Amino acid sequence: KAGVTQTPRYLIKTRGQQVTLSCSPISGHRSVSWYQQTPGQGLQFLFEYFSETQRNKGNFPGRFSGRQFSNSRSEMNVSTLELGDSALYLCASSLGQGASEKLFFGSGTQLSVL
Amino acid sequence: QQPVQSPQAVILREGEDAVINCSSSKALYSVHWYRQKHGEAPIFLMILLKGGEQKGHDKISASFNEKKQQSSLYLTASQLSYSGTYFCGTESGSARQLTFGSGTQLTVLP
Known about the structure:
The complex is a heterodimer. In chain A, strands 2, 4, 5, 6, 9, 10 and 11 form a seven-stranded mixed sheet that branches. In chain A, a hairpin with a 5-residue loop joins β7 and β8 (74-78). By secondary structure, chain A is mostly beta strands. Chain A has no helices and eleven strands. The model of chain A has no long low-confidence stretch (mean pLDDT 93). By secondary structure, chain B is mostly beta strands. Chain B contains no helices and eleven strands. The chains are: A mainly beta, B mainly beta. At the A-B interface, β5 and β10 of A face β4, β5, β9 and β10 of B.
């Protein structure tokens, strides 16, 4: 089985722009979660989608949004980019059928905001 | 609230043991452990559930103290391949989201 695929791998944007990141989960996985990773902060939870519905949301401003399609692929959008948004954005997929499932992470999208 | 991991970093020689701790102020349902090597995706190690038994995988094992809301990851006879950043993730309450600690950077030297 193919793993979790995130595109693009690297992205450079300027302040005020918007960006869309894509995540394709492992085939058969219905849950996709997004995390922001910055040095020293670990993995900060953004949101989780299951069957096209947002199931959980972290403590991030409304500039961060996401969606999930019927094929379980997910996109994350950040509008009006700020310098502090520079980070590695990771998505993770799981079967999503029960609690405490292991997550399979993608390699992430490295976003740099100039 | 983010769980607290300790130590933040540890350096050891091949063959030595290490313990990484993870504690939370919330009542936990489960604790997850992941390892991330530089430039790579985090990889799942194990899940410990409330009421469950201590887990083990090869020379890496973990425990979960429900009363203290703490978990410890034990690395026995460390190998070079164990180097990386270890994250604990906790689930609490009704929310299924994982809240991760800031990580413990483990370096194993030959």
